[in-house]
What we know:
The chain has 135 residues and is mainly alpha-helical. It is 54% helix and 4% strand. The chain is built from six helices and two strands. It has a two-stranded antiparallel ribbon with strand order 1-2. A hairpin with a 6-residue loop joins strand 1 and strand 2. The model has no long low-confidence stretch (mean pLDDT 86).
Amino acid sequence: MAATIDKIRPELLSKSDAELERLAAEIAMAQAEKKRLADVAAKEELAAEAGARVERVVADIKWLHDNDLLPKRVAEGFSRGDGMFSPAMILRAPTAESLVPREKKPAGDRKFRRRKDPKTGEYVPSKAAQKAGMA
């Protein structure tokens, strides 16, 4: 049984090409978002386990520091720029959202800043845009 569009969704034939393209793009975006949400949900358990482990590590590092058992170089690694020891700020638990890789845009879709040419004073494409071949 062959189904044709005029039997399934005849209203689509009355839409313009631009409307159909927009609708196709919206459907593709919705599918990508559903996949991302499913990936995030799959990483929830791993993120919870990582959070518990990071809490234990931070507590152990604090205990070692409080009892002067933590080497100075390690203590400096868990200190802020002003010298305050704060391992919880340095070592953070990942979230399920951060464990799912983000989709990268193709180089042609990225926006680049322009810069002024020091010789002419005119705006020219950025060096990054020139490397990407957009110049």
